[in-house]
## 1
Amino acid sequence: MALTASELLDQIQSEYQGEVTGSRADSDVDAWTQVPAEDIREMARFIMETWDPVHLSTITGVDNGRQIELLYHFVTNGISLNVRAAVDKGVDRIETITPLVPAAIMYEREVQEMLGVEIAGHPDPRRLVLPEDWPDGDYPLRREGVEDDEENG
């Protein structure tokens, strides 16, 4: 019997040993959960060890003014499991999941380059899409000087 998104989230709530700061199921096949940035590697480990097969379809990111929100988009058993981890600006660092999820290698490089979030422990931190002469500290998808969307909306 296949799991629904709600059942998958219930399993995370009951079996995952780390902190979950929010979750919701938008449909039977669309699940969202949130963990502190420092827990992303442990959540990736849990996902990879709990369900099979698991596919990381991409990692996306958005600068919301005060934080960089990273969204790890996994697919397992027909369910889209989206894991959110927000990195405070000024911290700008999150641990790599590449040793657990090899497919993350290119997505993490892109996040590092385009949003300026250091991917700690990444095995290949070279630039991915920007030219080598691109100015250090200039991140194309970063919204510098923006406090939050509500104040500037």
Note: The chain is about 20% helix and 30% strand.
## 2
Amino acid sequence: MTGEPVQRGTLVSQINVTPLVDVMLVLLIIFMITAPILQQGVQVNLPRVRAAALPGSEQQFVVSITRQQEIYLNDTKLELPELTRKLRAIARERPDRQIFLRADEAVPYGQVMQTMAAIKAAGIENVSLVTEPPSPAQNPESNERKRGPA
């Protein structure tokens, strides 16, 4: 033996990204599973119309009317008098508050109008109706554009 030190191993200066990729893939799967669950509200089939979406940044209050004509404020089932009382309390706090009304397309027009009257009776004047955009098959204007001039 010559007295020179023996070098046992060398340092690796590369970053191992495999654990990072594993964690990111797990997070991606978690978000893909939870995203549909986070969608707010009661399930209703909205009528399809052409209109632009309204901008909004604060907490939204959504009144939903189901096919069975049950009324919900966000996720809480209420009767019309209860809805008016709750919205009156909201209107006292913020008179400029906007309410979004979602009604199943099978709900009679009269039920929608009674609900709107209950919202107005609470002192809320800013009511928006929520709809779905039409599919291309239901939109005659889009079919005309595809065909071109005659």
Note: The longest helix spans residues 18-34.
## 3
Amino acid sequence: MNIIALIIFAILIIIALIHLSWAFGSFWPARDEYSLVQMVIGEPDIRHMPSRKLIFFIAIAFFLAALFALWGANIIMPPLPLWIRELVIFLLAFIFATRGLAPFLIAKQLGERVEPFKSLDKSLFAPISILISIGFIILLVNL
């Protein structure tokens, strides 16, 4: 379980750091803000990134999810009741599964997305989310 937890941790920390860089004004991997919006949000009417506070909050959420992966494998042991660990890992598995399956199951209801987000979502964002969800499910089953 340690390997699975460490892989989930590494992926989520990388995602958190990317979001943190956006919160501080980076446009990587795009060349400008509008290109970044088209790459990571994909809404045709949105031209600017969300507020820096919101992006920072999202980075913190990914960081906390990464810590729960470590707790799921007993690599860290925070002074919290174990039922919190089980509940949060279940919720994280559900959230990442929902995010991963969304472009394939409810894409029409979400509205039309623009490129390159549309392609990146199905080839990168969704599969990573599904793999993270599977990892959390494995951790949950082995608690």
Note: The chain has one domain: 2-141.
## 4
Amino acid sequence: MTAAKEDCEDKTMEYRQISDVYSVSGQIQPEDIAAIKEAGFRSVICNRPDNEQPGQPSADSVKAVVEAAGLAFRYIPVISGQITMENVEDQAQALDELEGPVFAYCRSGARCTNLYGLIQQQRG
């Protein structure tokens, strides 16, 4: 049982590159920020609402570590399965304003990916 726990702790963070300047992942932990910075990301967007699942870190706890590392942070919570036009517009504005590359996360990365696709459709 201890070995399985150690395996989980040693698991490297995985993310998917969607474009040259935008990548997505599932839920991150504050201790992942060093690796995100080391990978060259300049900004982080959280698309996961706080308290969506017990035990997930709050956006504020991630923001504190992101900003302490010298990166920019935006909190644009999107309810799973309920992306709104306001969500799309907020994400588009963040991508226009933030220095890239940008690292976005939610529970699985799907909301972040869908938002990006909707932005691209709008911009035609």
Note: The helical segments are 2-10, 33-38, 59-68, 85-97, 110-123.
